[in-house]
Amino acid sequence: MYVAFKYPRSEDTSGTREGLPVTRSRIEKIFPKLTQAQMDRIALYGHTRSVKPGDILIEQGDTPMPFFVVMTGEVEIVSPFGTHETLITVHGNGQFTGDVNMISGRRSIVRARTTVQSKVIELQNKDLLRLVQNDAELSEILMRAFILRRVELIAAGVGDLILIGSAHSAGTLRIKDFLLRNGHPYSYVDLEQDSDVQNLLDGFQTSASDIPVLICRGQVVLRNPNNQEIADCLGFNESIDQTQARDLVIVGAGPSGLAAAVYGASEGLDVVVLETSSPGGQAGSSSKIENYLGFPTGISGQDLAGRAYMQAQKFGAKMLISRATRILCDHRPYIVETESGARIPARTVLIATGAQYRRLPLEHLSQFEGAGVYYGATFVERQLCGGDEVIVVGGGNSAGQAAVYLSETAKQVYVLVRSASLATSMSRYLISRIEEAPNIVVKSNTEIITLEGNHQLNSVQWRNNQTGETEKRNIKHIFVMTGADPNTSWLNDCLMLDAKGFINTGPDLSPEKLRTVGWSLKREPYLLETSLPGIFAAGDVRGGSIKRVAAAVGEGSTVISFVHKIIQE
Fold first, then answer.
1. Which of 93, 149, 306, 387 has the least CB density, counted as fewest CB within 10 Å?
2. E strand or H helix that includes residue 118
């Protein structure tokens, strides 16, 4: 059976209705009541109209969806599933509809309907964007409410998706991670633990052999879908005008790509961002970054990326979840092709595809990826290994953050590093945390030599490379965070790379190299410009980059100053 959740009415905090246990102050932030003066300012961007009882203002799946402010009357927000509806909230006078999808332009995950004769202010998506860009006070109120509402929906598992899966399914883990990192709420039904799962499977003509199964808006059944299929069903990828040359196409939504999107869009550039999976890149999988400027208590990579993602969309950047497959680089404007078939013309391009953790050279590794071997330590992965022994492979900051994070719930965390010490590659504050944690053990000069199991990892054997001593343990979870290979294989020899496959930029492009590639301009390449004019690289994918989140953000923002110069050339 579908599990129903109820939020309290916006104006009801008495506890007389079933709802989430939230405080009045939190409710007032989630469901603020606008003043008459604030509503008057909003009305300048739209129009007022009267609506009858029972009129549907927003239907689940609508895109782009309009934004409504209730002047008089009442609008209820429900989550429909077949003939069943889950009440989320009821907006009264001075309150407004929407969550983060109002800004992104993605499909609505709810239904909005009047319950009595009402009068509303209606704004289209483009008008709402103008409002939040031009009115700082209202921008803060609306954006905060949108974000908090989405947080509550995720926590309650209320949305337009049902995921039927298994804790032993790598596909289930992949989909959970995709939805979590994209901030999309869903209900989860476990094949092994939910007694009514068979009824749900039968109702949608599926079977246990099909899992993971994703039911989208109670209508579309996706069997073990890839990320592109999920993104398309959820409306992540709005139709884009492929005849229009964009000022800047950014490939990759890690820290550098997101920084470029925020600064570029806020400065009036027409920006499109392509991301294969979810915003944040490698940094998005960090459980907590405590040495990032301005966050004294730390911030998770996912939260940092999510905020930047919203910020970029607020200023008008277009975000598409689709993998870039190649660049047509023999003429300008350049053409960026995606796996969905889109061909996006671009006056300038930023390559911010980052790097990926290096795979361990172990037999049978691939069969355990997602089923015991993981390349990120987020909330989803941590849920799988509570009370168990786990291994973290790597000696950098990402490995240290993962070890500390996992130690909060794991029985024992073993940190395996091939070097003699963590001091050469990890920040001192993380080393101190590890040293103080009673359930973290560092194994220096050690590497894994064998993995064992059937469909799920069951045991691991490691070896000390100094003594030759081996040890075998019944460990079912390994987090690999060692080394990095650049994501440049898709570039089709358009750009000059260094010996390790990272992109050469600026000063690394000597006059000899420029003659080799046929550099066509009298000027030398700008600081972050590649061997092709108007194509830039930033972040971990760039040769010689500093492997820090702040450095990547700085590079992404710096690119924008050069983009302006090129557009004016």
1. 387
2. strand 118-123
> DSSP assignment of 382-423, as one string?
HHHTTTSEEEEE--SHHHHHHHHHHHTT-SEEEEE-SSS-ST
Alpha-carbon distance of 214 to 204, in angstroms, equals 10
- All residues at 6 or more sequence positions from 236 whose CB lies less than 8 Å from its CB, including other chains: 106, 182, 230, 319, 320, 321
- Evaluate whether the domain defined by 162-233 bears CATH number 3.40.50.2300: no
Please list, in sequence order, all residues whose beta carbon lies within 8 angstroms of the beta carbon of residue 1, skipping any fewer than 6 positions away.
196, 199, 200
Q: CB count, 10 Å around CB of 16?
A: 9
Q: What are phi and psi of 434, to 5 degrees?
A: -65, -45
Helix (H) or strand (E) holding 558: helix 549-568
212 CB-side CA count, 13 A: 26
Q: What is the reported pLDDT for 455?
A: 83
Rounded-to-integer distance, Cα 296 and Cα 290, Å: 7
Compute CA distances 566 → 91, 329, 533, whole Å.
Answer: 48, 16, 9
The third-level CATH classification (topology) of the domain covering 246-356+485-568 is FAD/NAD(P)-binding domain (3.50.50)
Whole-angstrom distance, CA of residue 525 vs CA of residue 181: 36
Q: What is the CATH number of domain 24-156?
A: 2.60.120.10
pTM of the model: 0.91
CA dihedral 267, 271, 274, 277 (to 10 degrees): 40
Q: How many CA atoms lie within 13 A of 146 on its CB side?
A: 24
CB atoms within 10 A of CB 155: 11
Is residue 342 within 8 A of residue 274, CB to CB? The reply is no
Q: Convert the pLDDT of each residue in 281-328 to its tens digit.
A: 888 888 888 889 999 999 998 899 999 999 999 999 999 999 999 999
Work out the angle at residue 52's Cα, subtended by the Cα atoms of residues 50 and 55, and round it to the nearest 5 degrees. Answer: 110
Domain-wise residue ranges, the chain: 24-156, 162-233, 246-356+485-568, 365-480
Say which CATH class 365-480 falls into. alpha beta
Report DSSP letters for 34-71, one per residue. Answer: --HHHHHHHHTTSEEEEE-TT-EEE-TT-SSPPEEEEE
Grouped pLDDT means (10 residues each) for the chain, 569 residues: 37 39 68 97 98 96 93 96 88 96 91 97 96 97 95 91 91 93 93 90 92 92 93 82 94 97 98 93 85 91 92 95 94 94 95 93 91 89 90 94 95 96 92 96 96 93 96 96 91 93 96 93 96 97 93 97 94
Distance CA 96, CA 69 (A): 4
In three-state form (DSSP H/G/I as H, E/B as E, the rest C), the secondary structure along 448-485 is EEEEEECCCEEEEEEEECCCCCEEEECCCCEEECCCCE
Identify any residues that bridge with 1 across adjacent strands, giving them in sequence order. none
Nearest to 120 by CA among 47, 11, 53: 47
Q: Tokens at residue 456, please? A: 């799920």
Q: Cβ neighbours of residue 44 under 8 Å, at least 6 residues apart?
A: none
